[in-house]
Design a protein that fits this description.
This protein is α+β, with helices and mostly antiparallel strands and about 70 residues long. The chain has one domain. The chain is built from one helix and two strands, in the order ββα. The longest helix is centred in the last third of the chain and has 19 residues. The chain is flat and about 35 Å long. The model has no long low-confidence stretch (mean pLDDT about 90).
């Protein structure tokens, strides 16, 4: 199983987890990909397209999932 998340992240923002260094633990180590976005960052279509083109799609291609939710 692979968990991939693009989300807002920053000090004081609940739940306080989801940094890019958090990649899973124990038997699940390496099964989590966090893509944190800082509060106040002005992201538009081009920025999101870049995130998916350069991070999300290569991870999906390498993992080769049977199902995406």
């Amino acid at each position: 199983m692979l968990y991939l998340s693009v989300h807002r992240f920053g000090d004081g923002f609940y739940p306080g987890s989801g940094d890019c260094t958090e990649i899973g633990e124990g038997a699940g180590e390496g099964s989590t990909v966090n893509i944190p976005l800082k509060e106040g960052t002005d992201f538009g279509d081009l920025e999101y397209i870049s995130i998916f083109q350069w991070i999300v799609l290569p991870v999906i291609r390498q993992f080769k999932p049977d199902f995406v939710s």
